[in-house]
Amino acid sequence: MGFKMGIVGLPNVGKSTLFNALTRTAAAQAANFPFCTIEPNVGEVAVPDARLERLAQVGKSQQIIPARMSFVDIAGLVKGASKGEGLGNQFLANIRECDAIAYVLRCFEDGNIIHVANKVDPLADAEVVETELMLADLESLEKRRNGVEKKAKQADKDAKLTLDLIDRALVLLRDGKSARLVQRSDDEEKAFRELQLLTSKPALYVCNVDEGSAATGNAMTKQVETYAAQHNAAVIVISAEIESQLAQLPDAEQAEYLESLGLHEPGLNRLIREAYQLLGLQTYFTVGPKEARAWTIHKGDRAPQAAGVIHTDFERGFIRAQTIAFDDYVTLGGEVPAKEAGKARDEGKDYVVKDGDVMLFKFNT
User: Which terminus has fewer CB within 10 Å in the chain: N or C?
Assistant: First the structure.
C-alpha cells in the first residue's frame, strides 16, 4: 500500500522546489512566476528504513525493495479558487485524490522572490488555502444536504447517520473551522470519509525556511506551530533550498553536508515520518533469498489485511502467518534460528500486525 501526499500552497512559496528535491527530478518546473505548475506532477520516492538493509544482510537477499510514497505537486492556489479563480477547479479536484495534504508555507524573506501578496506572512497564506478548501466543502455539503435529509425522513439508517455528520461539519465550516475537527466515533469514520471533504484530510504544515533557520526554525515557524495546533495539524520545518542541494550530492557526501548545517537527517525522512504518523501507517517486512521488502499497512490492520497488500488472493485465502519480531530476526540470525529459539509464531486471522514484523503467509488459492 502506498499513499499520496498533495503538496499545496500559494504561488512562489517553494512547493515545486521542494517537490523536485524530494523526488530528485526536475519534473515540476520551479520558476519565479505564478502557475508554473499547470498539471499535477507525481513523483514516487522510496521510504527510508534502515531496518530493511539489516534484514537483507541477515536473510542474504539479492534485492532490497523499499515501500513507496507518492508526492503530488499541485498547481498554485489563489484566493477565489473555490469559485474557479486561477486554476481553482483543477486544484480542488487534484486534492480530492490525495490521502493527506502538505501545506507549504513561506517562512523566509528574499527580495528576489516575488510573493503573490507582496508580503511574507505564512499565517495569511495558510488561511487563504484553508479558507478556499472550507468554502468548497461548505458548498458541497449544502448541495447534498436536502437529498440526504429526504432519505433520512424515510427511515434510511445510513442517511440519518450521514445527515448528522453533515450537520456537525456544517456547524464548524460556517464558523470558519476545518472539517477535521468534527468529533466522531470509530463507527462513524467510514461514513465521514465518504463525504470526501477537503478539510477533513490529515494536514501537515511545511515551513519552508532559509538555510540558517533549518535546524532551529525562526519566529515565523513558531507562529505556524501555534496555528497548526489550533487546526489539529502537524508541523515540520524544512529548507527546500537545502533539500535541493542535498538531492544533487552523492550519498557519501550528504551526511557531511547535513552535519555542517547542524542537521541529522534529510528533510525527506522527517516528512515521511510525519506523514506516516498522520495517516496511522506502519511497516512490516517479507524476507527471502530473492528480496527483502517493506510493505505499508495501517496501524490496527490484522494479518489477512496485511497479506492482502501483497495480493488480494492472499487475503481471500488466508490460513495463517508465520511472524517474527524484527529484533528477534536480526539478533538470532534469521528465520531458522528464530524458529529454533521459539520466536517464530503462527498467527491467525485475528492477529494485529505490529510495526517491524517479519511475516510469511500461508494461504489457499
Answer: C
